[in-house]
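Hi team,

Filling in the usual template for the complex we talked about on Friday. All components are listed, including any nucleic acid strands or ligand strings, so the model treats them as one assembly.

SUBMITTER: L.P.
PURPOSE: interface mapping
COMPONENTS: two
RESIDUES: 1220
SEQUENCES:
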Amino acid sequence: MSDKPGRDTRGRPGLGTARQPRQPAQQQPQPDDGSQSTGSASGAQSPPRPATGPALRGTNVNTGSSSIGPSSTGPSSTGPSSTVPSSTGPSSTGPSSTGPSSSGFRAARPVQGGKPQPSVAFSTRNRPQPQPQPQNQTSADAASSTSLAEDDGDDAGQTTTTTTTTTVPQPTAKPAQTDGIATRPRTGLGPGRAANPIPMMARGRAQARDRREDEAASDAHVETKDVDLDTLVRNPGSEADDESDTSSESSEAKQPATKVPSGRQQPDDSTTTTTTATTTTTTPINTQAPTQSISTDDSTTTTTTASTSTTPIDTRAPTRSISTDDSTTTTTIASTTSTPIDTQAPTQSSSTSTEAKSTGPDPRRAAFQQQRRVAAKVLAPDKRAWGNDLAKVLNLPMPSSQTRLLNEGLATAGQIAGSNAYSQQDKQAASQHEQALRAAGNPPWGADMAMQAADAKVQLDLLSIPPNNRKLSPLGADLKGVNKTFWIENIDAGGTKTKAFLCKPASESGAETMPSGGKPGGEVAREALAGRAAQFLLGKGLDIGMPETHVVKLSGGLLPGNARAGEVTCSVQQFGDSAGQIGTQSRAVKGQIDAKKVAALGVFDMMTLANDRHGGNILLGPNGELIPIDHGENFTETTDPTAAARLKTTLGGVGNALLAIPSAHDPMPKEVAAAAASVNPGELHETLTADRDAVAARHGDMKGMISDAAIISAERAGQFTKLAAKMKPPISVAAAQVALGTHVKELLDPTLEYGAFSANAQSILAAVAKQQGAIKEVCLSSNTDYELLCQEVEQLGWRVQRRGEPTVPDLVSDPMTMMAILANQAKAPPISLKASDYPKELQLPQGMRAANAPPELKQGRRDFEAQFKAMCEANLQAVEQARDSVDEQAANPVLLRTRKRAVTALLLLIPANQQQAMQARATQLDTGPADAAVAGYRDLSADLTDLALAEQQRRFRAVEQPCRLDLFSRCDELKGGAVPNCYYDAFNELTAGNVLKGEREIVRLEASGSTVATVRDGIWKKFSVEATVFAIPGNDPDLVAFLDNLKQQDLSVVFGHYTKLRDRIYGGAFPKKT
Amino acid sequence: MADEAAQRAWIKRVLGTEFPVRAAAKRVPPLMPIWRDAKEAVDAGIGKLQDALRAEDDEDLQVIVDFGLFGIGKQENVRLMAALLDADKAGTAGALAKVVDAVEDYQAFLEASPVVALLERNPFGVTVPMRKTLGGALAEIVRHAA
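RESULT (copied from the run log):
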C-alpha cells in the first residue's frame, strides 16, 4: 500500500511540515562531498571505555573551510547530527539529570544551516533534521509540493512530484486501505475442480452425439462429470479419453441429441448461440493466442468436440481450423487432434454463415446458460458469504488466494455471460478471459500461469463494470501515493461494487532511483517477485499471508488522469479484509499478534531484503493475522550505497514495524525456525531468477529492473537467515533482523567469499544473541521514551532517525548504535574542520586563501586533513564495535534513566485523578529490582503516554472550532476579505483557495501566547496570521494515527494542540533541574 | 416406595412407634439421557449440514467440513458431560451444583457463540436447532438439578 508512515508523513499535511526543515535553506552545512558521516565516529573512541574518548570529542570546529569528505565513512556510517559541536548541548541533560530544562533541551539541539536555531516554543523544530537525499532535494518549494502529493514519503526526497495540492483529500475521502474483499462474500465457483473444463468437454461430446442421433434433448449438455484439472493437466488425455470412451459408448446409445441445426437461428440470436456452443465445446483448450475456427455448418462443432479429447490443455499457438462443409470434418478432426482449436475467434467469424440460417429464438439458449451454471457449480453468494463468515469465526485457514482469484474470476465470467447488461463484445472478451483462467488449472500456479490468471481476473473485473464507467478508481485522496494508486473494482450481479485489486502503475522512467536502489518502474517487478518469493516460502511451510501480487498491463485510458499513451504496466495486488495498519494499532493489539506470523514475515523480509517495512505496510487481518503489502522496495540493490544504508533503518532499525511487535522479540518459534532452516538459498536464487525472467518475458519493460546482484544479495540474506534460524538457543527474529540490517557491508557485499561471509555471520549472530534483551527494550519503548532517547543522542551531536518519519540514510536509527552512543556518552565529531582547528604551524596567514598557500603549507594541511579523516573513520569503527558489544547491562541504566524522566513529565499531563495511582506504580518500581524496573517503567511510560494522549485529545476537541474560526477571520482581516477560501487543512496542506500553503514553520509563540503563522497567498506573497497552533505532524505514530482519524471524520481545518502536547512532553514541560 | 411404606406401617403397628422419617433425598432422574437425546438430534442436523457442504464441492466449504462441526462447543460439552455423569452416578448436591454450573456455561456459549448463530442460519436448508434443542434440554436439566 502506498500509505506509509514515512510517506504519509509527507503526503499528509502535518508530516510534511515536519520535513520541511530539510529544505536546502535549513540544511545543515555539509562537507564538500556532501557526506555527513565522517564525524559519526567521533564518539566512538570512547566505547566501550569512555576514558578512551575520541580525540575529537568536544571539538568545536565548524568553519567548513576544510570539510572532511563523508565518503570516508561509507554509506553505512552513522552521521553526526550536525556540524554543531556537542559542547552546545545543555549541561542540564547530563545522564544524571532528572530532566533538562526546556531551554536546555532546545539548546542541546544542533543548529541548522550553520547557525543556531531560534529557541522557539516548538522544540521539535529545532532538532537536527535529516539530510535530504540529494537526488530529491531540489528546492524548498519543490519539496513542499512533493510532500503533499506523495504517499511514499518514507524516502525523503526520493519520491517524485506526481501530485499537486489540488489533489488533497476531499472531505468525503476515506481511507480505503482497510476495506477489503479478500474474504468478502462473493459469488464464486467452487474449487478449481468445480470449474474444470471437463463438463464442457462432455457437453461438446454430447452435442456431437446429439447430431449423430438427431435427438432433441438438451439434457445431454448437463453432463458434469467432475475431473480434477490437475489430473487433466498432468495427463491430458487420460481423463478425457477415459471419459470419452465410456461416455461415447454408453451415452451414444442413451443420450438424446441436441440439435445444432444450421439455419435455425435468427441473426440476433445466432451469434450468441454460436458463441455459446463454440465456447462450450472448446473450453478445455487454452488458446492464448488468437485462433480461428471458421465453420459454415455444424460439422465444426462436432469436429472440435472430438478433437478436445486428445488435445493438450495448454496450447497457445494460434491455430486455424476452417471447415466449409461436412467433407472437411475429417480433415479438421485430424488437424485438431494435434492442434488446439480456437475457442473465441470462431464465434465471431463464423457467425455470418450461421446468422443467415438462424430461425428464431433458440429454446436451448436458456438451457445452455443453465447448463453453464450447473457445470460451473457457482456457489450461491449467500452460501459463499456464510462459508466465509463461519471460517472466520472458527479461525480456519481460508483457501489460497490463488484459488480465490480463480473462483472469483470464473464467477465474474459467469455473471457477464448470463447477464443482458453486457454487450456481445464484452461477453466474448469475458469468455476469452474465462478460458485463460481455466487454462491456468488448479493452483498453485507458477509465475507465468499466475500472471496469466491474474491478468484474466483483472480484465474480468474491469469488464464487470458497465462500459460507460469502466475506469479504475483512484485510491482515497488521503492515501494518494507517489505514483497514483487505484482500485480495480468488481461489480457483481446484484450491482454491488467491491474492491478486487489495488493497482499501482509503474513509475515513469524519469523518476529518481527508487529507495531499493532499482530503476524507476522496477517497483512493479519487485512487487511481483516478492509475491513469488512468498509462494516459494509457502512451499517451505512459511505462510506470510501475502495477497496475490502480479504484473499486468492495462490500457492507459482506464487510469484516470493518466497521461501516458498506450498500455501501462501495473502491479496488482489482491485485496483483503483488514482491520487497519499495524502502525496504528494499540500496544494491546500488537501484543496479541501470533509470534509465528511475525517470525514468518520477519524471515521473508530478511530473505527478500525488504527496504520499506514501515507500519503502513503491514495490515492487520480480521482475525489478527498479518497482511504484508507494498513490496516495491524489496530485493534491495545492495550495490547502491544509499539503498544498502537504508536497510539499517528499514530492516534493522526504527523503520521496521515488525520490531515494534512484542512477539518479534520472542525466540523464533520452532516451526518457523525449522522452515527457515529448510530453505535452500541456492534454490531461492534459482526460483527468483526464473520468476524475474518470467515477468520480464511477459512484460518487456520490466526487463533489467531487478539486477542479478540483487538476487545474489537475497540469496546471501537467505543464507544468513538460515544460520540465524539454526541458532541454539534460538534467537528472536527481531535480533536477526537488527543483525542483518546493521551489517549489510559485512554480510551482503557481493564480492564477499562465502567463507568470509560465514565467519562474519557467525560472529555477528553470536554478538546479537547477547543483545536481544537490549534490542527488545529499545524497540518496545514507548514513543515518549524513544523520543527522549533520541534527544539525548542528539545532544551528543548525532542525528537520529525518528519513529514514523521518512527514512534518511546515515542517521542513528538502530537500537544498538543508539545504546552504544548513550552508554558511552560518545559525542559526534564535527564533519568539517575550522581554520582554528589546524595546528598553528598549518594555519594560514591573515588574508591568505588556502589555494594561494605555499606548497609546503598546502601539503601539511592536506596531511592534517587526511589524519582527521582517518581518525573519523577509526571513530566510526569504534562506534560499530561498541554497537556490537552493548548488552543489557550497559543499556539498562540508560533506559531506566530516560524512562524515569518520561514518567515524571507524563505524570503532569494526565488527569489529576489518575496521577496518584500512577505515581504509586512508579514508587513501587523504584523499590523493586533494577532489572524489573526497566521493563516496568517501559510499561508505565507507555500507559502514561496513552493517558496523556487521550487527555490531550479531549482538550483538543474542545478548542478546535474556536481555533479554526480564529484563523479564518484573521486571514480575512489581513487580506481585506479578498481571500474567499482561506483555510488550511488538517496538516498544513491547503485544500483550496488563494492561500496555497503555509510556511511549514510555526514561527514563534507570541508573548501573549498566541501563535503567528506565516502563510502565502496565491502569488506566493507571505503574510502572517495569528492563530493557535496548527497541527504539526508529530513524530509520534499515535499522534499521527489520531490525526488521521480526525481527518477522516472531518477534513476541514484541524488545528493541533498536539504540538503543545508534544512540546510539553518532549520539550518545555519537563521539570526543570533543581 | 411401596416396600418402604409397608415397613413403616409394620413398625407402627407392631412396635407402636414411628420410625423417624429422614428427609428424603431429592430424587433426580437420570440427566445424561436428556442431554444425549438432544445432542444426537443436533448432531444429526450437523451431519446433514456437513453433507450439504460437501455436496457443494467447494474448497472453502470443504475446509469447514474438514474442520468438523461436531467439535463446536467441545469444551463446554466435555465439562457438561462430566458433570452429568457425576450427577447421575453420585447424585450428591455437589455434583448437581456442578451440573448447574456446567449448564450455565453451555447456555452462555449457545447464547453468545457466533458459530451457533451461523449454523442455525445456514443457507443450505438444513435445520440445526442448536439453541432450541440443546437449550431446551439444558433448561430441563437445570430444572431437575437445581
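MY TAKE: The first strand of chain A starts at residue 66 and ends at 67. The radius of gyration of chain A is 33 Å.

Thanks, L.
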